[in-house]
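Hi R.,

As promised on Friday, here is the backbone we talked about, encoded as structure tokens. Could you run it through your design pipeline when you get a chance and send me back a sequence?
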């Protein structure tokens, strides 16, 4: 027999034994076969995916519901959305319950509580003790984990650190006399064993700055690890999402290298086999161990965040980091199993799986290497596979159970993950105990199955293109051209961080240059030079720009008008190609462009990168849209007549752009005009003129004919106004403040002698955006969403949140956490990767925001104001939160455009909506709620251009979230949407009579076919 066949035979034999013994204990079977609430929920969920989604959503919100009425109404709302026999049955039960809600709510709570008890060892360490002892009595060991919500502030992170230390002390104290009746004792790891999630030890994890994160986490983790060493206990770092993987591995190495711990072998971390790069990561860490002759534990898991990783990557058009077929994950797990067993000298392997094939394979391979059961261990999750755990103990293996402790609220995410795992189509436990798959099938070799399929295991670096194509294929329908967004930079990757750091260095070396206007392809320096400064260090001149004079405006419009004749008649496809070339140029220079943004307008790394991506998206999206428009549209199928609607360019446009999205908005408005056949004069905001010049340079490099786009720098009131009133300007695309926008609207309405067209104004203005927090909202999520929406780019986005409306008692719970989260924001120079908040744009903005803060201090309650670190001399304004704000006050009605948030209370959703809609603006709005009925009401009654539910209200993505508002927020043009290009065109219909003396081609063809 070959070696492979031998091992397979051994796996089958051991697997058979485990199954036999597990049947004897029978617990896992009852996990699926139960006739109680949990069993029914599992059974119904497996039958009906819609029911499963709704029930898990209900289970997720349940701990937050305060009254019995709320429990009954939520369950009823979730069930209303499903039409299955099960939900009809439950609805009936609820109708009965609605007469006596306290009783039925109590029953529901009791049942879900009972369900949580299956997977959660205890509400705290004390109450968990009984179950831990039981595990030991049954011959297994434990590792204890503290369940938690997302940590949003330093105090919460400190509290977690204290809880982990107390847990160590508590376990050491209370388990002193415990013994496991386990059969093996050689190489026995420490009895006290805890598992830590690093995200619980850090208030804000910034992907762009792992060093600061590591320092912050180590400052809390090291004392825990040193205490563990004193107690002779074991510490494991759990692995969370892929975004934290590099950080966790690096952190582990740093911890292990710390003085006092460098000789301590009882530290471990997790490798997730569903990650395509996990084999390579394991190799790398083994090399590190070899160099240091270091010993540690690897817990090998498949991975618990599979759905999340897929969605998270797809939303960012990133490569999906996980395998997408289960057998690939299984085969990779076995490959890593062999690797770590072969390196037993350094690694104590902990195989965490409930899959009998996976377990048997590890044991069989270990045996072929001459290892004994004391040389490694198996691990399982508490409550998931008790019968398999007991079978393994009986067979003489060391087994450890992962025992989470915590209250139901923080534990809910964990509970829901377990429920999903148990009902997942591809999970082993469901296959074995839910679907009765045969033992032979369950024990098949995943690698051979892959080979039968003609696949091999592909790792991340083998062929990135393959993986990219897996998700890069955009969803499209026949009528909508396919479009994929530019992936944002992944700053968790060190090579990406290096590129950004190099770009910052290179751009800094170009400071202080002078830049001309560009008219008909030629530079023009005329008026005085204006200084564009770094708002974070105003004494630093980013560049000097020549202010256009009145004559320059005349010449630029004339150049655009001359170029219009050829450009407007060029084939649409040629224009699309040139705009796509511009996209390629932007892509090529993306880090430099982002670096200019960091310096000239004070965006931090991620905000600057996002702006560049959006600019690229606009080019690609509008080129695709133009191709669609180019084809024309048959208006109606009519015999004897053909009517085609097509689109003509309007003429010469003035593009007047803001500084807050200095590239994206400038580029979006420009390319929409150009691709539709117009020519333009571009006027960037004076504060971001250098970025405007960089953009203009790339337009020229892309090969657009001279004069099609012209650039005039200078002051808005003079250059901008001259442009708007010029009789040869046919349209204005403007984004900026309400004051300037309404003025332009008015000026453009005056018709001059010799004017060719009525001027169209594509106008996007500000917002006074509100977000409602419902009583059942997930507060940790809401806090993070509020922080991002209100303080991202210092609140200087037109979409930014400035009015927060809390319903009922939510206020008391939310505001303290919000303040903590605001206090965790790092204010600093935007060029530093750790900076969350930089300066506001200039002195005028600084004074304006400060004046509103003064008003707030006089009229409302200042609940929080951040602190500007000493040494910062730019236009820095700290995050500021006012409470008890009258919704009619100036602070609540006027646009501040800075990091100032006002908080309002509402009794109920109706009042919250009334406050939210009481604004002259209607741009963005948001809601955090888990009530389907309230979500539906807000959808229909919150009147804004972009409404976001259960997510931040900023960060619109081209194509996905067509962006723009109405009322005093704009003319309703929706940038990045399918209707946008129409605003830059005149629609035109050509109708041709195709009937010639009674001969209609279509009818004739039809009748001749009939007579055959
Ligand atoms: C003691 C212990 C500790 C754990 N600690 C962690 C941890 O720190 N971090 C963590 O992420 N997880 C952790 N887990 C969770 C673990 O990842 C899941 O329980 C595990 O994935 C279930 O695997 P299994 O071998 O028991 O079941 P199986 O049913 O054999 O495998 C299920 C797993 O396969 C993968 N999978 C499912 N469908 C697909 C698909 N279509 N394509 C590719 N892969 C797929 C997923 O990872 C899924 O979880 C731990 C588990 C245990 C037992």
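Update: got your reply. Pasting your designed sequence below so it's all in one thread:
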């Amino acid at each position: 027999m070959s070696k492979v066949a031998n091992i397979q035979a051994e796996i089958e034999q051991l697997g058979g034994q485990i199954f036999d013994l597990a049947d004897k204990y029978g617990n896992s079977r009852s996990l699926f076969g139960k006739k109680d609430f949990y069993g029914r929920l599992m059974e119904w969920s497996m039958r009906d995916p819609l029911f499963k989604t709704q029930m898990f959503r209900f289970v997720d919100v349940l701990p937050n519901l305060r009254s019995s009425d709320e429990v009954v109404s939520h369950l009823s709302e979730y069930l209303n959305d499903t039409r299955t026999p099960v939900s009809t049955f439950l609805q009936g039960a609820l109708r009965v319950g609605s007469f006596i809600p306290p009783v039925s709510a109590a029953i529901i709570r009791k049942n879900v509580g009972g369900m949580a008890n299956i997977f959660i060892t205890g509400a705290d360490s004390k109450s968990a003790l009984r179950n831990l002892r039981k595990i030991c009595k049954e011959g297994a060991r434990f590792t204890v984990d503290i369940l938690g919500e997302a940590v949003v502030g330093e105090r919460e992170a400190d509290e977690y650190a204290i809880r982990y230390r107390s847990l160590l002390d508590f376990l050491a104290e209370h388990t002193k006399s415990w013994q496991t009746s386990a059969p093996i004792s050689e190489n026995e790891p420490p009895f006290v064993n805890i598992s830590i999630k690093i995200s619980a030890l850090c208030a804000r994890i910034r992907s762009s700055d792992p060093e600061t994160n590591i320092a912050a986490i180590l400052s809390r983790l090291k004392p825990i690890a040193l205490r563990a060493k004193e107690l002779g206990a074991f510490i494991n770092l759990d692995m969370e999402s892929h975004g934290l993987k590099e950080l966790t591995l690096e952190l582990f190495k740093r911890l292990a290298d710390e003085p006092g711990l460098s000789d301590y072998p009882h530290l471990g971390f997790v490798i997730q086999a569903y990650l395509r790069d996990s084999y390579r990561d394991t190799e790398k860490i083994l090399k590190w161990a070899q160099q240091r002759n270091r010993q540690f534990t690897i817990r090998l898991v498949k991975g618990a965040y599979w759905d999340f990783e897929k969605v998270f990557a797809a939303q960012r058009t990133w490569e999906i980091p996980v395998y997408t077929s289960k057998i690939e994950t299984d085969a990779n797990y076995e490959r890593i199993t062999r690797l770590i067993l072969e390196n037993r000298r350094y690694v104590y392997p902990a195989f965490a799986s409930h899959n009998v094939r996976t377990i048997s394979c590890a044991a069989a391979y270990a045996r072929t290497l001459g290892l004994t059961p004391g040389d490694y261990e198996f691990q399982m999750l508490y409550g998931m596979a008790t019968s398999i755990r007991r079978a393994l103990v009986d067979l003489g293996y060391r087994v450890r159970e992962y025992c989470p402790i915590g209250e139901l609220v923080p534990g809910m995410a964990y509970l829901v993950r377990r429920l999903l795992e148990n009902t997942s189509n591809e999970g082993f436990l469901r296959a074995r105990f839910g679907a009765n798959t045969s033992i032979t099938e369950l024990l098949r070799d995943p690698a051979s199955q892959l080979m039968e399929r003609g696949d091999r295991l592909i790792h991340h670096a083998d062929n990135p293109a393959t993986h990219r194509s897996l998700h890069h294929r955009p969803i499209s329908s026949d009528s909508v051209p396919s479009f994929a967004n530019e992936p944002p930079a992944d700053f968790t990757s060190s090579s990406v961080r290096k590129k950004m750091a190099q770009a910052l260095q290179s751009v800094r070396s170009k400071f202080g240059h002078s830049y001309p206007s560009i008219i008909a392809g030629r530079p023009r320096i005329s008026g005085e030079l204006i200084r564009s400064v770094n708002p974070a260090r105003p004494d630093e001149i980013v560049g000097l720009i020549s202010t256009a004079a009145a004559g320059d405006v005349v010449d630029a419009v004339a150049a655009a008008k001359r170029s219009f004749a050829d450009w407007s008649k060029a084939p649409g496809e040629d224009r699309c190609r040139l705009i796509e070339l511009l996209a390629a140029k932007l892509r090529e220079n993306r880090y430099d462009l982002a670096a200019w943004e960091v310096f000239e307008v004070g965006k931090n790394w991620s905000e600057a990168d996002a702006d560049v991506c959006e600019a690229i998206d606009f080019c690609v999206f509008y080129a695709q849209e133009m191709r669609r428009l180019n084809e024309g549209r048959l208006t109606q199928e009519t015999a004897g007549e053909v009517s085609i609607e097509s689109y003509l360019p309007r003429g010469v446009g003035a593009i007047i752009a803001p500084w807050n999205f200095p590239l994206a908005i400038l580029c979006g408005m420009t390319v929409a005009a150009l691709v539709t056949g117009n020519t333009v004069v571009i006027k960037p905001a004076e504060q971001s003129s250098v970025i405007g010049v960089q953009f203009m340079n790339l337009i020229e490099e892309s090969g657009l004919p001279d004069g099609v786009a012209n650039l005039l720098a200078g002051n808005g009131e003079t250059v901008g106004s001259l442009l708007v009133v010029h009789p040869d300007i046919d349209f204005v695309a403007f984004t900026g403040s309400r004051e300037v926008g309404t003025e332009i609207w008015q000026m453009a309405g005056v018709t001059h002698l010799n004017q060719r067209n009525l001027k169209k104004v594509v106008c996007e203005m500000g917002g006074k955006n509100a977000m409602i927090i419902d009583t059942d909202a997930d507060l940790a999520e809401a806090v993070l969403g509020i922080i991002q929406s209100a303080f991202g780019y210092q609140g200087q986005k037109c979409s930014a949140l400035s009015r927060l409306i809390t319903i009922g008692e939510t206020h008391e719970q939310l505001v303290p956490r919000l303040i903590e989260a605001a206090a965790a924001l790092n204010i600093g120079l935007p060029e530093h990767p750790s900076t969350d908040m930089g300066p506001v744009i200039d002195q005028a903005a600084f004074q304006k925001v400060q004046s509103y803060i003064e008003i707030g201090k006089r009229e409302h309650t200042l609940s929080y104001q951040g602190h500007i670190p000493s040494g910062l001399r730019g236009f820095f304004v700290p995050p500021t939160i006012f409470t008890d704000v009258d919704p009619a006050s100036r602070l609540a009605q006027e646009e501040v455009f800075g990091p100032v948030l006002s908080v309002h209370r509402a009794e109920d959703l109706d009042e919250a909506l009334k406050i939210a809609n009481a604004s002259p603006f209607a741009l963005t709005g948001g809601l955090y709620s888990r009530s389907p009925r309230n979500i539906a009401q807000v959808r229909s009654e919150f009147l804004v251009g972009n409404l976001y539910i259960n997510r931040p209200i900023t960060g619109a993505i081209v194509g996905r979230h067509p962006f723009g508002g109405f009322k005093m927020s704009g003319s309703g043009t929706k940038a990045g949407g399918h209707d946008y290009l129409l605003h830059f065109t005149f629609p035109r219909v050509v109708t041709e009579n195709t009937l010639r003396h009674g001969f209609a081609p279509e009818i004739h063809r039809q009748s001749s076919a009939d007579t055959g």
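One thing I noticed while checking it: Residues 238-239, 270, 272, 274, 299, 301-306, 322-326, 328-329, 352-355, 358, 379-381, 402, 421, 426-428 surround flavin-adenine dinucleotide (CB under 6 Å).

Thanks again,
M.
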